[in-house]
Amino acid sequence: MLITKIIAIVAITVTNVAAIANIDQTVSNIHEITHKLRVAKRAIQHFNGGVPSALRIANAVFQAHKASETARNHIGSSDPFSGPDGEQTMGAYNEMYPVLMATLQAGQDKAPQIKKSGFGYISRGMMHSLYLEKGQFEQVMRGQLSRNHTQMLEPSIDDVDAEFKRTLEAFDN
Question: Which domain of life does the UniProt lineage start with (predicted)?
Answer without folding.
Answer: Eukaryota
